[in-house]
Amino acid sequence: MTTRFRVVDAGLQEGRTNIALDQAMLELHQAGAIPDTVRFIHFRPSALVGRHQALSQEIDLEYCRGHGIGVGRRITGGGAIYLDEGQLGWELVFNRRTLGAAPLTETARRICEAAAQGLSRLGVDARFRPRNDIEVEGRKLSGTGGFFDGDSLIYQGTVLVDLDPAAMLGALRIPQAKLAKRGLDSAAARVVTLRELLAAATPTIPAVEAALLAGFEGALGLEFERAALSDAELELAQRLYAESIGREAFVAEIDAPPQGDGVRVGTHAAPGGTIKVYLRCEGTPARRIGHALITGDFFVAPPRLIYDLEGQLRGAPIEAAAAAVDAFFAARPTGTATVGAADFRQAIEAALCAPPAGG
To answer: pTM of the predicted model, to two decimals?
Structure first.
């Protein structure tokens, strides 16, 4: 049995426009206004943070301004990425029952294995590596991620056809600890492009698109029909861009607070992503949480959940913080999460055990 997907392509766009289209397609799919869809995405030079990341800790804003690199915030979680005309973005927006209503980890595995099968048609040995990478000989060719929102799933990936390493290294602040964990000296050593692998045989972008569709068709039983984005999608994307996603306030919505003034910082590196928590305690002595900020490259849906957890922590006695986290998640099951209550609790406890900066 095959399932038909629409295939759309909005052409070359800057990052925030592409993100606004992501949100528009998700909302319209939830409303039943568009069918299950594959979209191919092309970027002008852009540095994009994940939905929950602290902007200035992940992006070198001065470098981006000086080199004409746009900065945006994705609606999906995960880590910061650099994209330009050398990379191909792809995403699936579809009903979670289309592929069997499995948990996200299983659905992600199936999608990534299908994408890897497609990319292998180009002459490389592409393989899925949990939790969300497609690799060739241990180096990342494609990063992916997504989330459920109601009955709709948005799942995205990129393919490194070509890459300007200097631009990527300049735009992104990549922690050395993250590279050391993989025994690498630089971020450039962690990734690989089709051009590096195939040299003169590097495929064109349309050929990469065709290979991905072939992988989805063969592994997932999908059929495809090319179409244009609807007027409803374009109009909603324009409104979302103007009202939120394209605005500086949205991009800078999450950032690390100034160090000092009693801020405590705690980090927990979970299998599903790193969580970094900033706490400011109040009182004499300081035994109550006055402010909480939770950042990281994890995936959680709906994103509102993190803001609600921060609100739950404000005013909590520090000795009751762990119990407050457990009670919060017990009352609010997540739609999608690569991290859980225990991971947030460990990050918060690490912050509470840390000395206050400037204190």
So the answer is: 0.90
